[in-house]
Amino acid sequence: MRAILLVLAAAAVLAAGVVYAQSGADVVKAKGCLNCHKMDKKKVGSAFKDIAAKYKGDKDAEGKLVEKLKEGKGHAKAAASDAEIKAAVQYVLSAK
Ligand code: HEC
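Above: inputs. Below: predicted complex with heme C.
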């Protein structure tokens, strides 16, 4: 019983760590996305909220936007790891 609890506790700590390291909210801050985007108002680029609305219902939105940011096609190339870009895109698409 004790061993099981310890395993569960360790798993919870690990899961929390992963979420923190790749949190989209952290990435858009750390990678300068917020220099050009705001959550709810147009700046240099569209509000994340408007981008989310534009791609609503598009099942492949995440893939398309990750590609765009990774390749620098139609957007400044993001200087971030694949995992970070993915987290940032998920964050943008979940903006309300
Ligand atoms: C130098 C300014 C600048 C920076 C930095 C920037 N963006 Fe953008 N972004 C733009 C502009 C300009 C557009 C195109 C107009 C629009 O749709 O907002 C855009 C568009 C987008 C779009 C929509 C693309 C589409 O097809 O509709 C997403 C998603 C996006 N940016 C995410 C990000 C993320 C995530 C980061 C950080 C890694 C980032 N941007 C950093 C300026 C910037």
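The mean pLDDT is 87.
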